[in-house]
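User: For a benchmark we're assembling, each entry needs the component sequences followed by a predicted structure for the full assembly. Here are entry 17's components. Please fill in the structure.
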Amino acid sequence: MDVMPKWADVVLVPLFSLILAALLSALLILAIGESPTEAFMLMIEGTLFRSAGWGYMLYYATNFIFTGLAVSVAFHASLFNIGGEGQAMMGGLGVGLVCLFIPWPHWSLAIIGASMGAAIFGMIWAGLPAYLQAKRGSHIVITTIMFNFIAAGVLNFFLVGPLKPAGSMAPATANFPTATHLPTFEDMAQLFGIEKMFRSAPANVSFFIALLACVGVWYLIWRSPLGYEIRAFGKSGPAARYAGVGSVKIIMITMMISGALCGMMAINTTQGESERLILNFTEGAGFIGIAVALMGRSHPLGVLLAALLFGFLYQGGAELALWTKIPRELIVVIQALVILFTGALTMMVRAPLEQLFLALRRP
Amino acid sequence: MNFMKSILGSAAALAIGASAAVADPAIIFDLGGKFDKSFNETAFNGAQRWAEETGGSFREIELQTEAGREQALRRLAEAGSNPIVMTGFMFADVLSKVAPEYPDTRFGVIDVGWLDMPNLRQYIFNEHEGSYLVGMLAAMASKTGTVGFVGGQDIGLIRRFGCGYAQGVLAVNPNASIIANMTGTTGAAWNDPVKGGELTKAQISQGADVVFAAAGGTGIGVLQTAADEGILSIGVDMNQNHLQPGSVLTTMLKRVDNAVYDAFKGNGDWAGTMQGVVGYAMDEHNASLVTADMQAKVNAAEASIKSGTLSVHDYMSDDSCPVLSF
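Assistant: Structure for entry 17:
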């Protein structure tokens, strides 16, 4: 039987990890001569007290939901997909090609096409390492991380070559046609007659697609036969095989779903925000997805909450960079501390908590 | 009447005082970061010089994400920073969207020359011409007849450096061979001194004895390796002669600092496109490496570029280089 009640495991462990990370960050900020309380208030104020702050937080969170879900799905089959970054880049290429070369009449159709483009490209990019793993036994961790570099190379090739408008210096495609531009939260607020909400923030309709993806992953993993097979394979490959679950099939399908989810991150950044395909649009979201999945315990609800937290950290970090002298390296350190404590060091928090619960249980 | 006048006067004084207090300039550094010992740091030096000379203060931001670009710009404009200067062409797209929304804020941008807005001042540099000059020096200093070029991220701007450099080399020694390598294809290539060093070693093994680094922070590794291996190197953007004294042949100067300083001063008509200064650096650290004869030749070339009798092919004009393939 479990030592701790489930709620304690889900709520208390991340909470204490966060508090520890916050305390250590506060010490660091103090050490460079800034006020931690002021910094914290700035982060809260700039993110939660302004609608535009929310817009940015949800924008970043959308990325992390997609990549977090992708890593989670792979985790359920005991596969470690480190290639989220590369799959997202290829997804971006898919979005770019779909938006540039198909004359969409309306954004609602364009987003369906772009989602499919992104998912298919991401799927292919995850499918190749999956095939190597399933058929050749090449370890997925090694191959996916190497595929990140190949993806960066491919994207770069297209952005400095065929897709770059002549004479332009930035490694980026031309702007997408206006018909493909996604409505942002600002546009949606105006639809309801609310002016000056989410002013120029990048959050857009793809946030709702991310939420749909959360529900979809939940249904897939816990309510569908395929999800059952994925989980069975994840618990024990040989046992699953004995029960008639083909390992090749599960590895391929799981990784392709994972890749498709990563790829779909690109709708948010590429079609939603920059409205053209730029190099470096992933900005490490594929890797943050790993932390998000770890923190969210590979559960869609957990992933959603963790993604919101990281969205808050990103937007809060931008506020710190704007209004304080805290160097940007330290902001990265603070984000890394949160990852370290919530991802890697959970046992450090869990063990004392378990002791505490054991002590409480004794009569 | 007098009373009225004095009230109006003091109100006006107050208004002026208030606007002067909030109208601090601001500078936004691109993703490469402020202390790259190169492009961004030069910009920072320019801002710093302005602050020291005028006693004013300025706001500065190092970008962290692509999406943060527009956010930083808008928040600064709303907070009343004026003028706002940006380093790097990646701002062009955002600027063309944001600048018209804040007509009272003056914006300045480095490495962009193709926008046209009443509140925007642009600074462009003819990097191919500066690179041509250091290419001449490289060819004159080289004993093996083979020189190297290490670029940062493989983009048009850096190919422009490389192409100008190659033309300068070949102008002095038509039989010279040029080895050109790019550090990488992503933004990380601006800050990878280890890879810069590796590329330099590879070029040395192919016979290069002068290597030009146009690679931001990566160049530090190039200069270091060149010094360790006993060959010459050429720095970029801010004067890097002092980094490895006696080994850095010269630096291709791109006076971004002057541009930022000029923008912060904000004299004259704001709108328009300014031509920044490029050139090569001479100081006590490389005086023994560059002879008077070499200087004379380069200065002559510089003069004929200025007068228009010598034209250096610009890679970005047609996305191709007649003398070097990347």
